[in-house]
């Protein structure tokens, strides 16, 4: 009985304390600027993981189009009643054509129906097609003399033709030729296939068998998947980091990302095995390769399209330290450093320079205005620091205007982080890339992480972060509201310290529902559809309403970072003349808060509150893509005060026009 009485007293005391706390207003000094918000504050991080590029953002529908996978016919089926032993051969030109050595040679005999000689491709977990849409088929071929006709078909899941056309090779001789034809789809299908059946007599060599939808981003032939790019464009990100991520390092140095191999005609880009294909035994993806149809030119172009600053990351002479920890000897580091210098020239150089000319030949004479570059990804140790010194010296001597992003390793704390962070700050690093994949509770408890950082020292790039619902890299992780609201709370601390944190991005970005290796991920796709997670909407809200200047906001004369489960930050946008207040209520109870605004400017009679609220376990899906998404409400403003009702587990952005 005494224990029950004591518990009741404690509960009553907590309730009174809570009520007293709720009566204290949140104060905003809209005229007191504490930091400037960089245009790059909120951005996106892209890595070709989870079939993010091939099978995802890169709109090519044919898997293993040039027969260069480890198993040359992976994704393909060659069959037909007229085929005899040796009629279908994969030939390897080896040194004669190093970037694309293999091709398929078919001997076609007396073929007159679709059952005689057939070449079928399964696509990337199927081929998604849309009714009424035109598809562009192309092929590189070689034939000694005419005699073979190609019938190209889109098929549904049962093998029925839903789009057909005919390609008659127009050239013959010893040289390779490229030819294409379009076909219109008659049905919307999620997991279709593609087939070529051959008619006639003769021997024909085939390579670069390709199929693209007609609705690519900006209608560029051989381009990007429009709905996926649109999801990024809708965020209005300040930057886009590419191409990773651990693929920058590779499992070993031979597997690293080499940006120069991603330029020029797609048939001349040397394919590479994706380092994620066998990384996780629970998600083996042995058909995961990088064709580099999405290469560095396309990355720069996409960044320009969506108004984002490009942030390329290049290899520093170190492979993934979790895999092989292979390093290039210091005396052989020169070519790696030259790659960095040449990349600046490719992005910014005049068309009279070697690499500026290459950019112009690809269709972009004007510079891409590169301003920053990352040296290494998630590398650590003294071996990283000594290589970083060489890169930094070379880049700063030739291009002093380029800001360099430095790695702080894999974790936000511990001996590894402390050693790197101290060393980099001593060396006056431009930007230090911090990563945190942690439980939601870590994000809530670290909302004040940067309050004590040196505001005059090296700046922080929060380059990769995502709250993990069930442990790092576990396949059971979910993009639920619990993770997203924790990130929203943490981001108030990033915004409050915009003079320390200049850039931030969630990671990973994309995941294919049938081809992922890692969860959680910000945007999910299948072969036809795309949806944003609750985490996507949090990132989008911050990015759309980032403002230009941080202003003071407090509760009991302290930053709002956990008191009564509240987290808050405030900015002013000089472009729109708005005060923008971000408030997270991380508790299960609704709270009504008085917000007092100090400003010499006149406030409006009402404000807009854009908010998200839901059960902590709530998720989005293809069927319910906006289950957890923003809603708008109008709230009254009385003089310099407004009463804001914060729903349980809610993230709120209040916008007031300053007159």
Question: How does this model look, in words?
Answer:
The protein is of the alpha+beta class. It has ten helices and 32 strands. The strands form five sheets. Strands 3, 4, 5, 6, 7, 8, 9, 10, 11 and 12 form a ten-stranded antiparallel β-sheet that branches. The chain has a nine-stranded mixed β-barrel with strand order 1-25-26-27-32-29-30-31-28. An eight-stranded parallel β-sheet has the order 2-13-16-17-18-19-20-21. Strand 26 and strand 27 form a beta hairpin. Helix 9 (481-496) runs parallel beside helix 10 (534-544). The radius of gyration is 28 Å and the shape is globular.
CATH class category name of the largest domain? Alpha Beta
Shape verdict: globular
Distance between the termini: 61 Å
The assigned structural class equals: alpha+beta
According to CATH, the homologous superfamily of the largest domain is Glycosidases
Radius of gyration: 28 Å
The tally of domains stands at 3
**CATH topological fold name of the largest domain:** TIM Barrel
Instruction: Return the CATH architecture of the largest domain.
Output: Alpha-Beta Barrel
Low-pLDDT windows of residues: 1-22
Q: Count every helix, treating DSSP H or I runs of 4 or more residues as helices.
A: 10
Strand content: 25-35%
Biggest sheet statistics: 10 strands, antiparallel
Q: Overall pLDDT, averaged?
A: 95
The overall strand count is: 32
- State the helicity in percent bands: 10-25%
Pfam families: Alpha-L-AF_C, ASD1_dom
Catalytic activity: Hydrolysis of terminal non-reducing alpha-L-arabinofuranoside residues in alpha-L-arabinosides
Keywords: Glycoprotein, Hydrolase, Signal
GO molecular function, one term: alpha-L-arabinofuranosidase activity
């Amino acid at each position: 009985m005494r224990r029950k009485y004591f518990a009741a007293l404690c509960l009553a005391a907590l309730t009174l304390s809570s009520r007293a706390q709720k009566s204290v207003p949140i104060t905003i000094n809209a005229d007191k600027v504490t930091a400037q918000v960089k245009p790059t504050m909120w951005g996106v991080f892209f890595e070709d993981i989870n079939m993010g590029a091939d099978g995802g953002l890169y709109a090519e529908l044919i898997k293993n189009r040039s027969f260069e996978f480890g198993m040359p016919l992976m994704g393909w089926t060659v069959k037909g009643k007229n085929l005899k032993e040796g009629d279908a051969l994969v030939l390897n030109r080896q040194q004669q054509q190093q970037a694309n050595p293999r091709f398929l040679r078919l001997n076609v005999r007396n073929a007159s129906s679709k059952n005689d000689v057939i070449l079928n491709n399964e696509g990337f977990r199927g081929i998604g097609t849309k009714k009424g849409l035109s598809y562009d088929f192309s092929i590189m071929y070689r034939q000694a003399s005419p005699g073979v006709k190609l019938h190209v078909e889109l098929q549904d899941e049962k093998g029925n033709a839903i789009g057909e056309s005919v390609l008659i090779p127009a050239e013959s001789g010893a040289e390779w030729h490229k030819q294409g034809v379009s076909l219109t789809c008659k049905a919307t299908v999620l997991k279709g296939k593609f087939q070529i059946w051959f008619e006639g007599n003769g021997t024909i060599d085939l390579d670069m068998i390709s199929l693209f939808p007609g609705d690519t981003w900006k209608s560029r032939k051989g381009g990007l998947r429009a709905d996926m790019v649109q999801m990024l464009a809708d965020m209005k990100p300040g930057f886009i980091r590419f191409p990773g991520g651990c693929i920058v390092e590779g499992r070993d140095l031979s597997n690293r990302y080499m940006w120069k191999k991603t330029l020029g005609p797609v048939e001349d880009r040397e394919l590479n095995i994706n380092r994620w294909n066998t990384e996780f035994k629970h998600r083996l993806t042995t058909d995961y390769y990088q064709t580099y149809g999405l290469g560095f030119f396309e990355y720069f172009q996409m960044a320009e399209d969506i108004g984002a600053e490009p942030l390329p990351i290049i290899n520093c002479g170190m492979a993934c330290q979790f895999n092989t920890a292979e390093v290039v000897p210091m005396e052989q580091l020169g070519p790696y450093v030259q790659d960095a210098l040449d990349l600046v020239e490719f992005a910014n150089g005049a068309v009279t320079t070697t690499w500026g000319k290459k950019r112009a030949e690809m269709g972009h004479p004007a510079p891409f205005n590169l301003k920053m570059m990352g040296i290494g990804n998630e590398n650590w140790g003294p071996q990283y620091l000594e290589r970083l010194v060489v890169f930094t010296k070379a880049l700063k001597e030739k291009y002093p205007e380029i800001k360099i992003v430095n790695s702080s390793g894999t974790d936000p704390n511990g001996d590894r982080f402390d050693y790197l962070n101290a060393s980099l700050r001593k060396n006056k690093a431009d930007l230090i890339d911090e990563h945190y994949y942690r439980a939601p509770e870590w994000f809530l408890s670290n909302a004040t992480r940067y309050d004590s950082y040196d505001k005059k020292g090296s700046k922080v790039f929060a380059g990769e972060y995502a709250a993990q619902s069930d442990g790092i890299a576990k396949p059971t992780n979910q993009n639920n509201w619990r993770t997203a609201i924790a990130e929203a709370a943490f981001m108030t601390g990033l915004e409050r310290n915009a003079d320390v944190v200049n850039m931030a991005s969630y990671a990973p970005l994309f995941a294919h529902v049938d081809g992922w290796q890692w969860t959680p991920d910000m945007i999910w796709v299948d072969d036809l559809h795309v949806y944003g997670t609750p985490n996507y909407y949090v990132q989008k809200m911050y990015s759309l309403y980032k403002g230009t200047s941080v202003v003071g906001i407090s509760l009991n004369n302290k930053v709002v970072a956990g008191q009564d489960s509240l987290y808050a930050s405030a900015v002013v946008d000089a472009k729109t003349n708005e005060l923008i207040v971000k408030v997270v209520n991380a508790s299960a109870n609704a709270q009504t808060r008085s917000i007092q605004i100090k400003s010499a400017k006149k406030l409006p009679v009402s404000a807009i509150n854009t908010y998200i609220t839901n059960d902590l376990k709530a998720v989005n899906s293809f069927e319910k893509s906006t289950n957890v998404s923003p809603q708008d409400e109008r709230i009254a403003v009385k003089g310099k005060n407004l009463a804001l009702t914060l729903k349980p587990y809610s993230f709120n952005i209040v916008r007031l026009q300053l007159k």
